[in-house]
Amino acid sequence: MMQQFSAGSEVGDSDSNSGAGPAMRPMPSPGRRRSLLSGRNTRPVFGVVLLWLAVCLVVWSGSGPATADLPESLVARQQQRIQTIERISPSVVCVMPPGGQGGGSGVLISADGYAISNYHVTSGSGDFMKCGLNDGKVYDAVIVGIDPTGDVALIRLLGRDDFPFCTPGNSDLVRTGDEVIALGNPFLLASDYTPTVTCGIVSGVHRYQYPAGTFLEYTDCIQIDASINPGNSGGPLFDIDGNWIGINGRASFEKRGRINTGAAYAISVRQVLLFIDHLKSGRIVDHGRVGFTVRTSPEGLVEVEQVSQLSEAWRRGLRQGDEIVSFAGRSLSSANDFKNILGIFPEGTRLPLAWRDSEGVRRVTVRLQPLHGFDEAPPLPQERQSEPEPRRPGDGDEQDPEDQSEKNPAEKDPVPDQYAHLFERRKGFANYYFNRQHQDRLLKPMAAQTSASAKDQRGRWLLQVKLETEAGPKTGELGIGSDAAWLQVDGLNSALQSRTDYDPQNEPVEFSGLLAGMMQWHRMSQNDQTLFSETVYHGSENLLPSGDHVDVLITQDGVITSRWYFQADVPWPVGVDIHLSAGEDEVRLRFRDWRIDGPLPCPGKIGVVDSDTEQIRWIGVESVRVSVGEEAGAAVSQSRSEVSS
Amino acid sequence: MRLLCVVFLIVLVPGGASSVAEPPDIHDVVEAQQETVVKLFGAGVGNLDSYGSGVLISEQGHVATVWNHLINTGFLTAVVADGRRYTVQVVGTSLEHDLAILKLNSDDDETFSFVDWKASDEALTGETVLAFSNVYHVATGNEPVSVVHGVIAGKSLLKAGFGRWQFPISTPVYILDAVTNNSGAAGGLLTSQDGRPLGLLGREIRHRDTDMWVNYAVPFTTLQPAITTMLAGRRVQPSAATGDDRKMLSDRVLTSAFGLTLLPGVLKRTPAYVDRVIPDSPAAAAGLQRGDLVLMVNEDVIQSVNDLRASLAGFRRGQRVTLTLNRNNSLQVTELRIP
After folding, report:
1. In A269-306, which positions are buried (b, 16+ CB within 10 angstroms) versus exposed (e)?
2. pLDDT of residue A65
3. Residues of A561-586 as b/e, b for ≥16 C-beta within 10 angstroms?
4. What is the per-residue pLDDT for B245?
5. Could you give phi then psi for residue A355, rounded to 5 degrees?
6. Rounded to the nearest 5°, which phi and psi values hold at B263?
7. Buried b (16+ CB within 10 A) or exposed e, B97-121
8. Which residue of A has its CA nearest to B48?
9. Per-window interface: A 287-326 vs B, CB < 8 A
10. Mean pLDDT per 10-residue run, chain A (645 residues)?
């Protein structure tokens, strides 16, 4: 390899200055350089090139020794920039696989050591990795959660509870032309982990980058012209005030090989924050799909191309040719806009959707269904060898976590003993340990509140209820047991028996889903997770229609999937959305005004969400009795006979 | 036409190195200039891109761009900033300016934002510049084109090209400290930090001596006479310096060795049409047919029989070259072995 390099150098020796101007430097022949890029031993040469480019950038930005004839405002601005860089540098992480080669970058987001990086950086690094900070120290870190589609990974640095961390900004306010600062470890240049700083401007916002032969999709990303090179991946992008606005993860590479071409892409902080609790769940996090496709019409409208008849959008009435007006609260003018909005939300999120059809504008909500459903961390596509492929539109993009590191001091090091318990392997998870922590966080307070009434929890509950129906206010009894639920209200008499044999016809009109939902609540309140085939902490979201921020815990009971919503400081769920069977609408219940003065904790109000109108019909709970005898069974048979009559 | 377009007027800020006046807000400059850059789409050939950039230079929708493969292969469409899409006709080309002037096939009452290329002045070395283009085809439809920043590193004659193709501009161009030598950037707009139009971003070429990719832009001050001439509907006459003193294959060799006869070069620029192919010859092996129009040899644009004869003279025996042909209005690519 070195031979090739010297051969290349000779080319550069001949008449290197003829009319080339100061931008020209004697360089080895690019023909050689391209083949050199596949050679690991020569990477430091490109570090030198990068440094030289970085110097040029600094010159542009008006740096250099402050002199008396410079305007004061300029000098002050420069000083401010230096201070900003000093302030943000401690949060930048150099991510290295233990003992291995290569690595990338990351950024600390909280004092307890959580740090964001790229999936394509951590995927080759194993469950435990080494992280260098600009204090010169190397810390152990463990994988927490991964988002392969969004190319984001969450890791946790260990050994301190006072890690420096960055301050997130609002990436939605970023404008083309804004000055930006990228920090990271291109070519792993710094042996003391002081991050390399490159400056640039925002070249474009709301960019969409196709998956291009892989599953890594960059949506709604920020395009920058700051130098981004191998090793920068996973590192933070800051605005000029030092607010964290993105994760540098991708660049358009082409004929020069894998070095900066002035077109790099950062995942927006908005997307990262929407996923952050999902990543903390330790899961392999997925992105979503809506069950319909769109295209940009010749008139510049976003038009529905095809709708799956199994989709929620279809059940709400969306049809081919309808015009999408807004999605997740954002208006749109192209199919790319739609993909940009869709791509920043995790699977399972319920989002507002508005469209125009012949009858006017319809506003509904739809839940994002899983896009890939990875059970295991998917392997990255084969890295491109030596010569670049012929270009195609949308091609020419490559992620590269790998870089030769001769000074990587992280020696071959097995999993550190004191941290071994922080990792649990399980299908569907990057690290199940973290999921268990969150399950305990949500479920233990509920268990503590109800342990005194354990016997009553197991009985049949008889709730005196008051409800507003279309025929006026009514009162009656709502009965709930482990395998049956019934409503005894004049005109609404109904009963469900057997949780698993569900027929929505048996639900009370106007309050459809109430009985199936309450049966799941009865099961949940037993505080025995073995009653469910699986319990998983999912992450957090804004619960619709209220918009409250909630934690999401998912239980699986046969084919019945329930999403339980927990709000800070309320030990019991504030709602549950239950998926009973494919092609059917979810049952969506909301719980308010929890009371613990009766025999068991019970919500003062139970709401049933109507998915067609997004309105909630509330049922008031007047009082609660518990029955452990025959009485309840009699009530069920009575209700059933009424239903059948 | 229901669409109206506001004509963008360049605000000229009194220049001069001694001026310490605050430059206008970069966001305003970016937004205004993005309006004047169009996305060009044509036919890609081999590993050449099917997309590029251009700059609106008149209210009626004239566009200046680099005269590269995209222009020659025809089927060109342009998308302006608000997403309107037009077919395009080539108004004129100038070899020695490496320039093509296009006209959007718009309605008579449509107007467009454009840059005031007539008022363009010289940029100083060291001046901060912005480069606007649809680099890497990142923007589609009405999405704004990309902008990168940099510095004018110098103004210099450029000794560049590949194969037989020589960079045709014999006056100094801006050398940029900004990575503009990228797919799709050619024909984009170079402005100063305060929005003064400075030039057209150059094509993807390498320096002859260093073999490095060169980031350059052709100053509007160099292009002004040619643009004026072409907008007036006249042809730009090549100067004596670009006359044909090239080494060329003789017609006799072409026929005997290649098995290929071209149309006789009676005009100054007789198109490179194939007149006859001798069976069992290298030309026949390459699948050439009577009536084929040779558009390119490798990445060299072929504009005449003389271009083709000169281009083929530049290769050694046994080399394989890629010919791009127009056959019955469709593009064909074939490989020819040099005998």
Report:
1. bbbbebbbbbbbbbbbbbbbbbbbebebeeeebbbbee
2. 52
3. bbbbbbbeeebbbbbbbbbbeeeebb
4. 60
5. -140, 160
6. -60, 145
7. bbbbbbbbebeeebbbbbbbbeebe
8. A391
9. 296, 300
10. 27 32 32 26 42 47 57 92 97 88 91 96 90 95 96 97 97 97 92 94 93 81 95 96 96 79 95 98 97 91 95 96 96 92 96 96 96 89 39 37 40 75 96 97 89 79 92 92 91 84 85 92 90 96 94 95 94 95 90 88 94 93 82 48 40
What distance in Å separates the CA atoms of residue A585 and residue A596, rounded to the nearest whole number? 32
pTM: 0.80
Q: Which of A20, A201, A207 sits opposite B210 (nearest CB)?
A: A20
CB distance B174 to A23 below 8 Å: no
Structure tokens belonging to residue B12: 């000229």
Q: Tell me the pLDDT band of B313, cut-offs 50, 70 and 90.
A: confident
**CB contact, 8 Å: A25 with chain B?**
yes
**Distance (Å, whole) CA A556 – CA A535:** 6
| Predicted local distance difference test score (pLDDT) of residue B46 | 63
How far, in Å, are A171, A462, A487, B98 from residue A635 at the CA level? 57, 10, 10, 91
DSSP states along A471-494 = TEEEEEEEEE-SSEEEEEETTT-E
Q: Are A491 and A471 in contact, with CB atoms under 8 Å apart?
A: yes
Per-residue b or e along B7-37, where b marks 16 or more CB atoms closer than 10 Å to that residue's CB: ebebeebeeeeeeeeeeeebeebbbbbbbbb
H runs (alpha helix) in A322-481: 335-343, 432-450, 454-458
- Any chain B CB within 8 A of the CB of A29? yes
Amino acid at site A165: F
Instruction: Tell me which of B314 and A645 has the higher pLDDT.
Output: B314
Q: Which of A297, A242, A298 is nearest to A84 (CA)?
A: A242
Of how many residues is chain A composed? 645
Q: B296 — contact with chain A (CB < 8 Å)?
A: no
**What are the pLDDT digits (tens) for B142-162?**
899 999 999 999 999 999 876
DSSP for B152-182, please give it: EEEEE---BEETTEE----S-EEEEES---S
Query: Which residue's structure tokens are 């009577």?
Result: B290
Q: Is A257 on the interface with B (CB under 8 A)?
A: no
A342: its two tokens = 């869709």
Q: What ipTM did this prediction achieve? A: 0.80
Q: Alpha-carbon distance B15 to B21, whole Å?
A: 10
Angle of CA points A168, A169, A171, to nearest 5°: 120
Q: Each residue of B5-36: pLDDT tens digit?
A: 333 333 333 444 444 566 789 999 999 999 99
Q: Are A571 and A445 in contact (CB under 8 A)?
A: yes
CA-nearest residue of chain B to A265? B138
Single out the residue of A51, A402, A406, A405 nearest to residue A233, CA to CA. Answer: A402
A361 bridge partner residues: A356
**Which residue, chain included where needed, has tokens 């260990």?**
A158
- pLDDT score at B9: 35
Task: Using alpha carbons, select from A458, A208, A241 the residue that is nearest to residue A338.
Answer: A208
Q: Which tokens go with A333?
A: 């003018």
Q: What is the mean pLDDT of residues B199-220?
A: 92
Find the DSSP H helices in chain B: 26-34, 69-72, 220-231, 251-253, 282-285, 305-313
- Report the C-alpha gap between A555 and A579 in whole angstroms: 11
